[in-house]
Amino acid sequence: MQEYTHHNINDLDAFAGLHTEKRAIRLANGDKPGKFINGFYALVNDSGEPLPTRPVPRSYKLVPHLDMFRSQAAQLQESNLPTQNVTITDRVYDGGLRATREIHFDDLRLDMPVGDGRLQDDQTARMDTINSIDQSWAFQAFAGAYRAYCRNQQVFGGQKLYHARRKHTRNLSPESITANSIIGLDTFANNRDYFRRMTEVKMTREQFGQIISRTLAFKKGKASDIILADDELTLADKRKATINQGLLGQMVHRFENESNDLGGTAWAGYNALTAWATHVQDNALWFDDEKGMYRTQKARTTDPNRVPHVRMQRQQKVRDVLDSHHWQNHMLAAA
User: Does residue 281 surpass a pLDDT of 80?
Assistant: First the structure.
């Protein structure tokens, strides 16, 4: 393992020279070019030399360390987090097959729950990002105030405010995950009391779905009074009503992902909402109850010039959800 500690988010020297590409594999055939092996690719370095790891399938989403950490640094520069006084430890394992970046924000300190209603004061906020190119580690991002973490999703000596663990499949969006970790940490730091309350309020998949069906996914129409008043509507009733089923299914799926990492809480619901608002160019996965299968909804925003406008629209809709009596009543009922 190689370890490098420094104080500059743009210092990526630890990952320099670790550019990796997928390359089709040919079977040996004497002096003649052999046939390609369908479905599998070798990982090669800048010189075109194969890396000492097994081939990856066509569906494997390769995330080169340098590209990923460069993108994260750019996101941090655009954020409100204090990046002038940071302590960063970059680690590279097995010649570049795996890498991590640990960032401590020395000017940002949080008092986080440590159990029994007690708070541990002045813990330094931090972010940790884990990546591999050889299928050995899932892509992970942590954010919060804690002493240490392990790759089985646990943290020690504090609490995580954001955590995502995703396999390297086609749907992996590392930029979205690192952006969400930044947003979660920044949001919590500026609204500590309210968002600490969110981390404590329990919320189930069904409860989150009810809130979304009455706010974000609800379409104006004659059925509005029925939808808003009746908490016991059957699935068949909801299909007949004016609810955007694709958006509802997408949001419930996002909540499930967040609650797997953050627990079934209102904080997981909030993170699902901000993920939807921020990542307008990502394809969305949602469960179609009628067909009993997952479906992919392609991103509707493909024009980069439209992205800021769409984000602003979605952020306002998220604020509308949080200000709605449906969300507020849930927060009060759990008091």
Answer: no
